[in-house]
Amino acid sequence: ETLLGKRVDYSGRSVIVVGPSLSLHRCGLPREIAIELFQPFLIRGLIRKHLALNLGVAKTQIQEKEPILWQILQEVMQGHPVLLNRAPTLHRLGIQAFQPVLVEGRAICLHPLV
């Protein structure tokens, strides 16, 4: 039963749609997925900027999606590429790294030529 499906922390799954305004090395990441992927970095950013006193307050701010959260998320995403996998991964181009950009909606956006 557990051989076919396993849960992976800090990962997300979504539909891929075309994003012609993106450059080849960027991918559009929905806000919900970005919060899940970068949650530890967001917590650290909130505490370092003295916007949260402790871990519990930081998690509450993330759940309530405070407006300051998006600015910190933009800063965090600049230095952390994300890996995108298109199943089935039969060769090495099935997994690629991209620089994430926040987008509205629930779908991951990619350049048409990728």
UniProtKB/TrEMBL annotation:
Q: Which Pfam families match?
A: RNA_pol_Rpb1_2
RNA polymerase N-terminal domain span: 1-114
Q: Which InterPro entries match?
A: DNA-dir_RpoC_beta_prime (IPR045867), RNA_pol_asu (IPR000722), RNA_pol_N (IPR006592)
- Gene Ontology cellular component annotations, sorted alphabetically: DNA-directed RNA polymerase complex
The GO terms this record gives for MF are:
DNA binding; DNA-directed RNA polymerase activity
- What class does this enzyme belong to in the EC scheme? transferase
Q: Recite the UniProt keywords alphabetically.
A: Chloroplast, DNA-directed RNA polymerase, Nucleotidyltransferase, Plastid, Transcription, Transferase
Keyword Phosphoprotein appears in the UniProt entry: no
Gene Ontology process terms (BP):
DNA-templated transcription
* Chemical reaction(s) catalysed: RNA(n) + a ribonucleoside 5'-triphosphate = RNA(n+1) + diphosphate
- State the SMART domains in the record: RPOLA_N (SM00663)
Q: Which domain of life is it from?
A: Eukaryota
Q: What is its EC number?
A: 2.7.7.6
Biological role: DNA-dependent RNA polymerase catalyzes the transcription of DNA into RNA using the four ribonucleoside triphosphates as substrates.
Of which family is this protein a member?
Belongs to the RNA polymerase beta' chain family. RpoC1 subfamily.
The name under which this protein is listed is: DNA-directed RNA polymerase
Species of origin: Valeriana jatamansi
